[in-house]
Specification:
Elements (H helix, E strand, L loop, with lengths): L12 H20 L2 E6 L5 H16 L3 E4 L25 H9 L2 E5 L10 H4 L5 E5 L11 E4 L6 H12 L5 H14 L10 H12 L4 H9 L4 H11 L3 E3 L4 E6 L1 H6 L12 H4 L6 E7 L5 E7 L5 H7 L3 E2 L3 E6 L3 H16 L2
Parallel strand pairs: 1-2, 1-3, 3-4, 4-5, 7-8
Antiparallel strand pairs: 6-7, 8-9, 9-11, 10-11
Helix pairs in contact: 1-5, 2-5, 2-6, 5-6, 6-7, 6-8
The protein binds manganese (II) ion.
The site of manganese (II) ion has 7 residues, from loops.
Length: 346
């Protein structure tokens, strides 16, 4: 999930030691593996995809086999980060099944929840697992060695720290992929998770070969024209509510189908209601392929949209979360807006 995090820092010296030991244990696991399967959540975003490419490049640079096997196809818009398309294996392919059988470790990035890895779950069932994630805990955690750091701006920040603690090796593939992870999960260094630490890491990644201009253009300057055709129709649904504190937009399902849109075309749509002055909670509603309604929520402090999303059966971060609710659309909007209003009462 793209997201604005938040929350506290690393704690005291004791917490720091525990954290250092956890990174150490993960590096030991990675060092002891001959072949590693890497995955992330369904509909991978820049953080999931970028973290995967970076970890795979790091492992391959050290002579460890590394394969990316995702529950849904690797996102087209981030495929340029891969030095070779062959690093990615489709989950339903015979090659993925074979590589998963031969692997001795699975690494799950940017989620820690069983349902989010979908069809990859049975493929890695018998493998020991490492989880690296920056989301708050959910309801169905993946069992394994878990590094969870909700204060990290992106999973990419944690992968950066892992590689940094290992002392590299670094290369431009790793730097670009991690920069993309951090760039996209901070909404282009705009959200509340844009910490000094995250900016320092970005600076280091730029030194290591990531071009801010090139990567920004790749993330925000290469949209398909149909995205804007869809946006035009979505804008017609923009609604500002409750004296301007709540705003939402919907993605018309007929337009989505007619234009042949993909989920990637919707990237950033929720930023439209979010960008209205005075809005504390913003939402984007879209109809999923099975007829349910996915709602993406964004908030300004102090509104906690993670709590609202969890109540609705979803989750995410304090300032960026999502849930899937029953349709039809109008009923879903009413349900979500009622929850948001309850959550806003102060
Ligand atoms: Mn993330």
């Amino acid at each position: 999930m793209t997201g604005a995090g938040g929350g506290g820092g690393g704690g005291g010296a004791g917490a720091g030691a525990v954290r250092a030991e956890l990174f150490e244990r993960i590096l030991e696991r990675l060092g002891g593996a001959r072949s590693v399967v890497i995955t992330t959540h369904a509909n991978a975003d820049g953080d999931g995809a970028g973290s995967e490419v970076a970890l795979a490049a790091f492992l391959r640079e050290r002579g460890t086999e590394a394969w990316i096997v995702n529950p849904t196809p690797f996102p087209e818009s981030f495929a340029f980060l891969l030095p070779e398309p062959g690093w990615v294996l489709a989950a339903k392919s015979a090659a993925a099944v074979r590589r998963c059988r031969e692997a001795d470790l699975a690494v799950i990035l940017d989620t820690a929840e069983v349902p989010r890895i979908g069809r990859v779950k049975p493929l890695i069932r018998d493998l020991p697992k490492v989880v690296i994630d920056h989301h708050p805990p959910g309801k169905r955690p993946i069992e394994g060695l878990v590094l969870r750091e909700p204060a990290a701006c992106a999973t990419g920040e944690l992968v950066y720290e892992l590689i940094d603690r290992a002392g590299g090796p670094w290369n431009a593939v790793i730097a670009r992929a991690l920069y993309m992870a951090i760039l996209t999960d901070t909404g282009g260094f705009r959200f509340t998770n844009t910490t000094p630490a995250c900016l320092r890491i970005a600076a280091r990644l730029a030194e290591l070969g990531a071009s801010p201009e090139e990567l920004h253009r790749a993330a925000y300057g290469r949209f398909h024209p149909r995205r804007f055709e869809l946006l035009r129709e979505a804008l017609a649904t923009l609604t500002v509510h409750r004296n301007g504190r709540v705003a939402w937009m919907t993605v018309p399902a007929d337009a989505y189908l007619r234009l042949g849109a993909t989920l990637e075309d919707l990237e950033g749509f929720v930023d439209v209601p979010r960008a209205i002055g005075g809005v504390e909670v913003a939402a984007l509603f879209r109809t999923t392929s099975d007829g349910r309604i996915k709602v993406s929520l964004r908030s300004l402090p102090p509104a906690d949209v993670n709590r609202i999303a969890v109540e609705l059966g979803g989750g995410g971060h304090l300032r960026a979360a999502a849930a899937v609710v029953k349709g039809p659309l109008e009923a879903a909007i009413a349900t979500v807006v009622a929850r948001v209003e309850e959550g806003l009462l102060d």
